[in-house]
UniProtKB/TrEMBL annotation:
Gene3D superfamilies: HIT-like. This is HIT family hydrolase, diadenosine tetraphosphate hydrolase. InterPro entries: AP-4-A_phosphorylase (IPR052908), FHIT (IPR039383), HIT-like (IPR011146), HIT-like_sf (IPR036265). The active site is at residue 120. Keywords: Hydrolase, Nucleotide-binding. The lineage of its organism: Bacteria, Pseudomonadati, Thermodesulfobacteriota, Desulfomonilia, Desulfomonilales. PROSITE patterns: HIT_2 (PS51084).
Amino acid sequence: MERIWAPWRIDYIVGGAKEPGCIFCTKPVSDRIDENLIVHLADGAFTMMNKYPYNGGHVLVAPYKHVSDPCSLSPEDNSLLIQEVCRAVQVIRKVMKAEGFNIGINLGAAAGAGIEEHLHYHVVPRWNGDTNIMPVLADVRVIPEHLLSTCKRLRAGFNRLFPESSREVEK
C-alpha cells in the first residue's frame, strides 16, 4: 500500500491556531518569504501559495490594500489586481503545464470565504484527467509536490517571465 503524506494540512484538519492579524497584510511585508509561501510581489497586488490547496499550484492573489470587496478598490487598483491574476495564470500554465483553471473570489462567509475581511482571488490549475478515485472514495486530495517546492518553481517562473513587474523577492 502506498502512503500519501501532506503534513502541512494537519493544522487545517484539527483546526489549529489561527495566525494573528491578517495574513494578506502581514505576510507580503515580512522578510520570511519562503516560510510565508510568497510567490510574487508586484505593484498593487501579490501572489502566495494557498497553504491548504485544492490542487498543486493553487495560489491566492490579493491586493495589498485591506478591503473585503472588489468594489472598494479603485479602477487602477482593480487593474493591478487582475494583471497579477493574469500573470499567475501564465506562469502556472508555463511552469506546471496546466490545461485549465478555476479562478474565483468568495465574498462573505455565506459564499465560502475562509478569510472574508481581505479580498483575494483563488487561482486553481487543472489538468485533463486530474480527477481520480481518491476524492470520490476517501474525500482526500493528493498533492504530489511539497508547497515550498512548488512556491520556488513558480517564483522562478514569475521572475523569468515578468522581471519588469517583480518587486525584489529573494531566496
